[in-house]
């Protein structure tokens, strides 16, 4: 006879949720392949989790025992109750309960059930026979080495050195300048008569003559004797009128305020009939009704118009959508994983 944990492991290959009555539910979700920092490639797998609030019997595990162990339904329930009692007794003694290929259950300091998934097991049928692969980096030989370019030394232009002039050259330069100015003045003073002999007398060149040199004007008769006085221009005062029209302020218009009616909070129904649907993609299970309403409101805001909830076994099940066919529910869970959302299938 196979143990209860073996039956749970077999059911996790085909089902997303396996509930052990009075203990909790094991949840399975598909995950993609992963490459770790140590270059280890893990194949795709099903991630196993545990929910302590899923304790109500859905009949899946008991019917599996009836089919494969060839016992009655009541006998299957008795075996499950004995298995749960044994697990709780070991955890109360501070021990850990090992589920082969599934994980480990134990109590923490606050007496809450904790779960650690097994690392070397894979419940995904598509990855059967695939093991973790250690990747080795490729080392390339004769890699081209870049030679550094030669750095040319910066050539700075040499600064011209200031020329030093001796004191003797400075004095001789000053004397040459004074002599040149004096010679130019003497040349002009002795050659005024050569420049214009008709307007100057030779006697006026005497340095002892105190009479000023008189200039003779030619054709003085042609010059006008009277000079017209310029009359002051008449200043005309021009008065410019203000052509800018007076701008009157526009009358202020008063816009009546519009009163927006407050939206009444939508009252969600506490119970919803499931109809002919028996497969539901569940987002969460709650004890408190208000928490379930809050979860339902979040799903509807995310665009799940068919989201609803129902009550079963003193629990509120909030689900994305219900289906008659299980394949449609599986398709919805796959699409939720692509959107980084989680959900599991509940058969009601």
General description of the model:
With 348 residues, the chain is of the alpha+beta class. Among the domains are: 131 residues, no CATH class; 69 residues, Alpha-Beta Plaits (2-Layer Sandwich). 27% of the residues lie in helices and 19% in strands. It is built from 7 helices and 13 strands. It has a 4-stranded antiparallel beta sheet with strand order 11-12-10-13. Strands 1-2-5 form a 3-stranded antiparallel beta sheet, covered by helices on one side. A hairpin with a 3-residue loop joins strand 6 and strand 7. It is elongated, with a radius of gyration of 56 Å. It starts with a helix and ends with a strand.
Q: What key attributes describe this structure?
A:
348 residues, alpha+beta, Alpha-Beta Plaits, four-stranded antiparallel beta sheet, three-stranded antiparallel beta sheet, 19% strand, elongated
Put the structure in a nutshell.
The protein is built from seven helices and 13 strands. The chain is α+β, with helices and mostly antiparallel strands. Among the domains are: 4-134, no CATH class; 279-347, 2-Layer Sandwich (Alpha-Beta Plaits), CATH 3.30.70.
Uncertain residue ranges:
195-272
Q: Estimate what percentage of residues fall within beta strands.
A: 15-25%
Largest sheet: 4 strands, antiparallel
Number of helices: 7
Task: Specify the structural class.
Answer: alpha+beta
Mean pLDDT: 74
What's the β-strand tally?
Answer: 13
Order of helices and strands: HEEEEEHHEEEEHHEHEEHE
Question: N-to-C terminal Cα separation, in Å?
Answer: 29 Å
Q: What proportion of the residues is helical, as a percent range?
A: 25-40%
Strand order of the largest sheet: 11-12-10-13
The global form is elongated
Please give the radius of gyration in angstroms: 56 Å
